[in-house]
Amino acid sequence: MARAFSIKDAAEQLDKFPAMLTHEGATPVVAVTRRGMPVLAVLPWDLYVGLLQTLADLPGDVVGTQMEGLRALLADATTPLTPEAPAAVPRTRQPHRRRPGR
Predict the structure, then answer these.
(1) Counting C-beta atoms within 10 Å of the first and last residue's C-beta, which end of the chain has fewer, N or C?
(2) CATH of the domain at 35
(3) Running DSSP on this structure, what letter comes out for residue 58?
């Protein structure tokens, strides 16, 4: 059974997930929940790639129209990663303040 963390707890524990997921005998998946319902699965990268390869190797009639998407995911999973640019923080305008005496 996968361990479950709320989104808030998962964010606080994210740096511990790699060790937790590779610990021998432990389930290599963490479920992230919102209001008690699973919304994300966190798993080691090699397991993810292995799942994609397994799905891509299934006969076409089994996976049907998803085959192109699986191949694209597999291609993305096997290319070198590049760091994402930080998201732009929207600037809010500060109200104009008059200096005293003017």
Answers:
(1) C
(2) 3.40.1620
(3) S
